[in-house]
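Researcher: I need the complex structure. Ligand is BIS(adenosine)-5'-pentaphosphate. Inputs:
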Amino acid sequence: MSVTTDRTAWIEGGCTVCPHPPAKVHRAWHLVLLGPPGVGKGTQAELLAQTLGACPLSTGEVFRAARHHPVAPGSAMAAAQAQMQRGELVTDETVLDLVRERTRCLHCSGGFMLDGFPRTLAQATALDALLARESLTLDAVISYDLPAAQLIARLSGRRVCPKCKAVFHVTAHPPRAAGVCDQCGTALVQRPDDNATAVAVRLDAYAAATAPLAQHYRAQGLLVPIVADGEPARIFSRTLEALAARSVPV
Ligand code: AP5
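Model: Output:
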């Protein structure tokens, strides 16, 4: 799957604007997607973006995109990339600087879906404060869950297109020609942090630092838990049904 919304302003930060702003939506959703590595947040974000119009804003994607630009040795971004490659969380300070620099994306007329942020209680508290300062509120925090064995199977079989960022899976969502992107014909690659050692670190980091966020958002009445097994389309339907059950028409 390839992400269809224009996220240039989010990826590049600074003064960059999106050349293709979102289509008019009848409701600008403000969502957080929570869930362990490989649960399918990116896959669901794209499906949700097509239906709701909200823009998927992934902090991991910003760090990956920065790999294609010169990074000063010893800089926060260089440290972030090394931490990411090992499967460790990037420091809260670096992540929060990144998000604050992109605050205007939270005012996008199409709405937003934060994917992979917040990931620690400190980040969640900082997001609460940022949203309050910007007079914005969250509609829901969608929390996807899946047993560890299935997460590992999804991560070890993931293949991505380095050019258009389309995501495949060797068995669950294979490309038409083995190892080649359906969308642009580029050779697919494995993400550097999808190796077994980094995956184990990522799953541990999730359990220790991110899983407690469910309680943070449950207490705010925002948590929408979704079982993430089965086909992506089925999980997507569950998500829409759960949002509709919050008495807001989707
Ligand atoms: P990030 O990019 O956010 O990665 P992640 O959370 O580990 O999530 P993934 O992108 O690995 O998985 P996903 O849930 O999106 O699954 P996907 O849809 O691709 O973060 C990477 C790193 O950046 C972190 O480890 C950290 O170092 C750093 N970082 C980022 N944000 C940070 C923050 N806020 N604080 C600190 N550090 C931060 O699906 C996975 C595979 O499964 C694919 O192959 C897909 O095709 C397949 N698949 C999807 N759905 C299904 C299904 N229903 N059935 C079968 N296969 C499926």
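Model: Summary of the prediction. The chain has a mean pLDDT of 94.
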